[in-house]
Amino acid sequence: MQYSGKRGSGLGNINQSPEFIGGDDYGLQSDSPCINSGNPDTTGLYLPYFDLAENPRLSMDTIDMGAYEYFGGIELNLKAFLEGPFNGTTMNTGLANSNTLPFQQPYNSSPWNYSGTEEVISEMPENTVDWLLLQVRDTTNVSLANEESIKQQQAVFILDNGSVVDVFRIQSEVRESD
User: Fold this and answer.
1) pTM > 0.70
2) Other beta carbons within 10 Å of 80
3) Which tens digits make up the pLDDT trace of 141-178?
4) What is the DSSP letter of 147?
């Protein structure tokens, strides 16, 4: 067995407590050695898009050990309006309606160099305006916000009503309504 949160020998296995939440909850606590300790090369593993709790299977740079990804406890409820597509009350969805939005997140090249795996599985939700790269930074002053201050980043959708939403969560809702 490799890259296991179970104690024992083997490539990538840990020899310490996996720090599960406890009881019947096998989610990971914030100090778990299983976070970002899974197999660093997931090529050809055909992993599902979601873990057992219907969260994105990959939330940071490396997959976590176990059946649940750790998300760090930050949940945001964001709204934004882009000047270009804003029509006075909502935003136009012309890019999505004309099939010109890419199905995979578009921030994997310079200047962003973001390696996230966000993608649309079947079809773009019809109320999608565009992709956004959302970054959470930790700094004492906005002038100090640089690459080192990024704590978390994720490619997300902005919808016609201004909602900024998790691509994986939207895919989960689309799957459930099919």
Assistant:
1) no
2) 12
3) 999 999 888 888 889 999 999 999 887 665 444 333 34
4) G
Q: What is the largest CA-CA distance in the chain?
A: 61
Q: Which residues pair with 164 in a beta bridge?
A: 78, 158
Q: Say which residues have a Cβ less than 8 Å from residue 56's Cβ, sequence separation at least 6.
A: 49, 50, 69, 118, 166, 168
Residue the block writes with tokens 């895919």: 171
Contact at 8 Å (CB) between 155 and 114?
A: yes
Q: Which of 119, 108, 121 is nearest to 156 (CA)?
A: 119
Task: Give yes or no for a contact between 145 and 97, defined as CB atoms under 8 angstroms apart.
Answer: no
Q: Contact, 136 vs 152, CB < 8 A?
A: yes
CB atoms within 10 A of CB 121: 11
CA distance 111 to 33: 32
Alpha-carbon distance 132 to 1, whole Å? 39
d(C-alpha 127, C-alpha 13), whole Å: 44
Give strand ranges (E) for the chain. Answer: 20-22, 25-28, 78-79, 128-137, 150-159, 163-166
* Main-chain phi, psi angles of 115, to 5 degrees: -100, 20
Is the peptide bond between 40 and the residue preceding it cis, with omega within 30 degrees of 0?
no
